[in-house]
Amino acid sequence: MATAAPQMPDDLSSIFLALADPTRRAVIARLGQGPASVSELASPFDMGLPSFMKHIRLLENSGMIRTRKSGRTRTCVIDGPGLSNAERWLAEQRKIWEAQADRLEAFVMLEQEGRNADSDR
C-alpha cells in the first residue's frame, strides 16, 4: 500500500502563512515605503529582537522580502515576486467568483423575466 507523500509548503502557502500575522503585514506595509533596518522595523513592536527576527526570517523564507547585512546593520527590502504571486492567485480567484456571480445574475434575470411573462398572460 502506497503512503501519501508528506505535504511540503508551496510558495503560495508560505506567502499566505507569512501574511497571516499582523506584525508581518505591518512590516510589509512599512517596507512598501522603502528599505528599512531591522531595528527600525522592530521599534513599533513590543517584543524582543530575537522574537522579531523570527518574523523577518519567515518573511524572507516566503520570498516576500530580502535582507542584506552591512556591518552590524541588517536592511530589509520588499522582494517583488513573492507578493506578485499572491496577487496573481487572488486575481484568478476573483475572476472565477465574478464569473459565477455573473452567471447567477443572468439566471435570476431569466427567472424574473419568466415570472413577469407568466403574470402578463
In short:
Helices cover 65% and strands 12% of the residues.
Report the sheet with the most strands, covering strand number, pairing sense and barrel closure. Answer: 3 strands, antiparallel
CATH superfamily: Winged helix-like DNA-binding domain superfamily/Winged helix DNA-binding domain
Number of domains: 1
Q: How many helix segments?
A: 5
**Mean pLDDT rating:** 89
Number of strands: 3
Q: Which class in CATH terms?
A: Mainly Alpha
Q: Quote the distance from N terminus to C terminus.
A: 65 Å
Overall helicity? 55-70%
Order of helices and strands: HHEHHEEH
Oligomer: single chain
Sheet/helix structural class: mainly alpha
Q: What fraction of residues sit in β-strands?
A: 5-15%
Low-confidence segments:
1-9
Instruction: State the CATH topology.
Output: Arc Repressor Mutant, subunit A
Shape: rod-shaped
Architecture (CATH level 2) name: Orthogonal Bundle
Radius of gyration: 23 Å
In spatial order, strands of the major sheet run 1-3-2
Protein name: HTH-type transcriptional regulator
Keywords: Plasmid
InterPro entries: ArsR-like_HTH, HTH_ArsR_DNA-bd_dom, WH-like_DNA-bd_sf, WH_DNA-bd_sf
Domain HTH arsR-type: 4-98
